[in-house]
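stage 2 :: seqdesign
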């Protein structure tokens, strides 16, 4: 079997709509891998990151690309869909072209209802078309978000996503006492030397829900929650 790296991403607006959970992306990729003769070695997960950023400009996306360039044993990279890795046409074309030249195939589990392998000639044709549509859809989403924010602001209602430790109640952001206690615990654990991965593992073990509709805690999401809370 070919050794492969997997990539997952979800943005903050998608946390609101529950359009793509990280857990679901992981499960679909793991189900797909055996049929494509792939062994998933590691997952790289960008939690709360916009697809408008180039892949190499994201925290985990950059690490993914560095690993692909440095690890000669890796022969493939897998994501659930094109828009999880790319929302920019040029970034998609340049990145996948670079990987193909290095002998690394790119796989999408769901590519218009069918799996995709970048080293297939037909796949490359449809990829160019899908990449353009992904960029177009990103601009449409951005327009809808701006319009929604403007509408809610004009009506005197909050348009921000409630951070961990808070809730949205009738358009107003209020503190969530239980989550505030958990924030204090997370700060104490981190100050005491606990790792972000360790804190995420404990939160998952305790069954603490995230603000992302049941998504798992990751080091990146713990870091984001602490930074956002301390910046308020």
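stage 2 :: out
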């Amino acid at each position: 079997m070919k050794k492969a790296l997997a990539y997952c991403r979800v943005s903050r607006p998608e946390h609101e709509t529950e359009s793509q959970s990280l857990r679901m992306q992981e499960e679909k990729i793991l189900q797909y891998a055996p049929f494509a003769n792939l062994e998933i070695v590691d997952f790289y997960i960008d939690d709360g990151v916009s697809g408008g950023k180039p892949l190499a400009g994201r925290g985990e996306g950059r690490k993914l690309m560095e690993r692909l360039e440095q690890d000669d044993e890796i022969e493939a990279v897998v994501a659930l869909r094109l828009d999880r890795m790319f929302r920019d046409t040029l970034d998609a074309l340049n990145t996948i072209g670079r990987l193909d030249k290095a002998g690394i195939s790119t796989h999408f589990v769901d590519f218009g209802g069918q799996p995709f392998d970048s080293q297939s000639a037909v796949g490359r044709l449809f990829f160019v078309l899908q990449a353009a549509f992904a960029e177009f859809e990103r601009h449409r989403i951005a327009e809808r978000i701006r319009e929604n924010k403007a509408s809610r602001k004009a009506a005197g209602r909050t348009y921000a996503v409630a951070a961990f430790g808070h809730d949205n109640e009738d358009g107003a952001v209020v503190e969530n006492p239980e989550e505030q206690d958990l924030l204090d615990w997370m700060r104490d654990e981190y100050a005491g030397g606990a790792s972000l991965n360790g804190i995420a593992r404990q939160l998952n073990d305790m069954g603490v829900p995230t603000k992302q509709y049941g998504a798992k805690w990751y080091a990146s999401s713990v870091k984001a929650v602490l930074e956002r809370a301390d910046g308020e």
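stage 3 :: structure notes
- DSSP finds nine helices and seven strands in the chain.
- The chain has a mean pLDDT of 81.
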